[in-house]
Amino acid sequence: MHIPDGFLPPSIYLAGYSLTGVTTWYCLRQIRRAAIPPEQEIPKASLLTAAFFVSSAIYLPIPPTSIHFVMNGLMGILLGYYSFLAILIGLFFQAIMFGHGGMTSLGLNAVIMGFPALIAYYLFGLNFLPLKLRSFLVGALALALSAAIFTVVMISFIPADIDADVERKAILFSLVGYGIQSIIEGIFTMIIVSFLSKVKPGILTDKHETNS
Questions:
Q1: Among 7, 28, 178, 200, which is most exposed with the fewest C-beta within 10 angstroms?
Q2: What angle do CA 174, 175, 176 make, to 5 degrees?
Q3: What's 130's DSSP letter?
């Protein structure tokens, strides 16, 4: 799901950095206003940033392709406004150490994976369904939203010097894999959230009122 450097027009990368800059400013502003001081939240954010970073190196074979966890829904649920910053930092290290994405596309990739994390945070706090079902839906939706944004951006700005039809079919075909991955991410999020609700419910109720 990482968009590489040099594939899209420079204006799109610039727009990605602009959106990421504004969102980073907004998240920092909300964090500064929060009742819980940052020194209590930073260790949790650091742990999940490391998990996000490592997850990109663990591939699960789903023929004819392979997938890796993104966990942006889970990060949104557990970190709130910290989730966008955590994903941005994780993407930075993925780019410089693994070559996933790139520095030019860093802002755009942060938008693709970070915006759904913030949406997951808001949706999970609505308490509209029992905890297990809500955590599954929010975890799956966050990944599906990332896949949808990625697909729209890639199809809308396919470079003129490649076979657009072939590229478009390949991108649309990848949605099958992302659909499977959404279900897996939803189940994974449900398991983690259900476990935390039993052993450390405060990590959820710090930011959300839950019901089971």
A1: 200
A2: 90
A3: -
SS3 category, 60: strand
The per-residue pLDDT for range 78-110, each reduced to its tens digit, is 999 999 999 999 999 999 988 888 899 999 999
- pLDDT bin (cut points 50, 70, 90) of residue 63 is low
The predicted model scores a pTM of: 0.88
Tokens of 103: 């520095």
- Residue 48, pLDDT > 70, answer yes
Tally of CB atoms within 10 A around 22 = 10
| d(C-alpha 208, C-alpha 4), whole Å | 36
Closest CA to 108 of 168, 26, 50, 21: 21
Would you give the end-to-end CA distance of the chain in angstroms? 33
Taking phi over 0 as left and psi of -120 to 50 as alpha, with beta for the rest, 61 belongs to beta
Secondary structure element (H or E) that encloses residue 61, with its range: strand 60-62
